[in-house]
Description:
Helix content is 52%, strand content 8%. The chain starts with 11 loop residues before the first helix and ends with a helix. The protein is mainly α.
Amino acid sequence: GHTVRLIAGRSHTRLLRHRTRRLHRPSDTPKKAALLSHVSADGAEWIHAVVAERAPAAVLCLDPFHVVAWATKALDAVRRDLWNELRRTGRVGRARGG
């Protein structure tokens, strides 16, 4: 398979207008988009809408960078909450692993 990279910019309209080198002719775009098996993207809803419209058979995958970033952010929030709870209840030694 081939990787098709999209341009920077965040909008449904911009993505719909974009033509890559592999999808260079507007008449070819629907045919080639229909051949896509997987699309990796962040969690933006507008991307989901474009993929569903242009490549309905493609599996939409969340890209690893964003998945790790979201998990790290959630883990940090839990860590902070636990630290604050232990500090509030006078168990700072426990928070430090003691």
